[in-house]
Design goal:
By secondary structure, this protein is an all-beta fold. The chain has no helices and ten strands. It has a four-stranded antiparallel β-sheet with strand order 2-1-5-6, with no helix packed on it. The protein has a four-stranded antiparallel β-sheet with strand order 3-10-7-4, with no helix packed on it. A two-stranded antiparallel ribbon has the order 8-9. β8 and β9 form a beta hairpin.
């Protein structure tokens, strides 16, 4: 079973039990969240495709930690003027663990 969710302008393919990193989300560490922007749910032979979202589908996740991603070097150079500038950037991120994928008509 897996689902495709939309979060922060990006799409993520998630399965129960997996951990993944996303751009920073508000939420306390250890607290559960429900993500409702689910565009695809696949469970064995059953496939639900949303237009744009699957109605009643949710992905339950737990916030594991907040932190910062690896540094990205940004180098600007302009020839003939001897202009050089070096900058670094570290994105704030949140690590999430998928606990459960719920959809309408699901057998429990």
């Amino acid at each position: 079973m897996y689902a495709v969710i939309h979060l922060g302008g990006k799409q993520y393919k998630v399965q129960p039990g997996m951990t993944f990193k996303v751009d920073y989300l508000e939420g306390e560490v250890g607290k559960p969240l429900e993500l409702e922007k689910v565009s695809l749910v696949v469970d064995k032979e059953k496939v639900l495709v949303g237009k744009p979202w699957v109605e009643g589908a949710k992905v339950k996740v737990t916030v594991l930690e907040h932190g910062r991603d690896k540094k990205v070097q940004v180098f600007t150079y302009k020839s003939k003027t001897n202009f050089k500038r070096m900058q670094g950037h570290r994105q704030d991120i949140t690590t999430l663990r998928v606990d459960q994928i719920l959809y309408p008509g699901q057998e429990e």
